Each structure stands twice: as structure tokens, then as C-alpha cells.
Amino acid sequence: MKRMDPRIRAARAALAAYDRIKKTSSAQSTDESVCDLLTDLRHYCAKHEIDIEQAIERSLGHFEAECQDDPAKLAGSPAD
Asked: Which residues of 26-63 are buried (b: 16+ CB within 10 A; e: fewer)?
């Protein structure tokens, strides 16, 4: 059995913690949870004068660099 990438495991744990704090319904989809978290991060960044668009752009560069050794990761995996 293939081990889950630690970055995916960390993201999954962050989403689970976020859902617990927000008391998110178990019926809410993961897509909705990701959207809600990103929205709240936008609020946080606005309050703390962090350029969210620049952070997102930098994160894309990090993501692409981390996936460089395995181009299949760029498309994602349903098992993750």
C-alpha cells in the first residue's frame, strides 16, 4: 500500500481541525471546506496586511517545484 504524502496528510489534518473549529456539517463537501478556509485566510490576511495574492502565487511555485520529480502529482490523485 502506498503511503500518503506528508504534505497531503498535513493539509487533510488542517482541514479537519478547521471543520471542527467551525463546527462544519459532515454533509459539507471537502471542496466547500477548502473554499471556506481560503475565504477565512483572505480575511486574516486583510486584517494583518498580508498580500494573499502574492502568497498564492508563491505557493504555486512551491507546489510546482515539489511536483517536479513526479509530474503525475500536478494532476492530483483521487486516492489522496
From this structure: eeeeeeebeebbeeeeeeebeeeeeeeeeeeeeeeeee
